[in-house]
Amino acid sequence: MTLFSSSAFVATDTPARYISRLCKHFAHKIPVSFDEHQGRIEFGAGVATLKAENQGLRLQVESASSEDLQRLEGVVGSHFERFAWQEELTLDWQPI
């Protein structure tokens, strides 16, 4: 099975805060696991992973179809941008 995937990187001094916020938000409805270095959110349409890196946060989404991938980019991106409004951060998804 071919997986479609994309990732986005955002420079921030507080990647652990965003991992925690996103994972806690989605944990009310779907399976989630996380710590201060990484997170995994299991959507019906695919998986999102979050990783703290030296200069910021790496977000990655994977899905079985390009349509679902676009949907995941939109869902994860809109929630991230809502939580990151103070820093005015936005995501630029790139295919992997």
Q: Could you describe the 3D structure shown?
A:
The mean pLDDT is 95. The chain is of the alpha+beta class and 96 residues long. It starts with a strand and ends with a strand. The chain has two helices and six strands. The protein is globular, with a radius of gyration of 12 Å. A six-stranded antiparallel β-sheet has the order 2-3-4-5-1-6. The chain has helices at 15-26, 66-83; strands at residues 4-11, 32-34, 38-43, 46-53, 56-63, 94-95. InterPro entries: UCP028291. This is DUF2218 domain-containing protein. Pfam families: DUF2218.
Keywords:
96 residues, alpha+beta, 31% helix, DUF2218 domain-containing protein, UCP028291
Strand content: 35-45%
**Tally of strands:** 6
Largest sheet: 6 strands, antiparallel
CATH topology: TATA-Binding Protein
Order of helices and strands: EHEEEEHE
* Low-confidence residue ranges: none
Number of helices: 2
Number of separate domains: 1
Classification by helices and strands = alpha+beta
**What strand order characterises the main sheet?**
2-3-4-5-1-6
What is the rounded distance between the termini? Answer: 16 Å
CATH architecture: 2-Layer Sandwich
Shape: globular
Pfam family, one: DUF2218
InterPro entries: UCP028291
Protein name: DUF2218 domain-containing protein
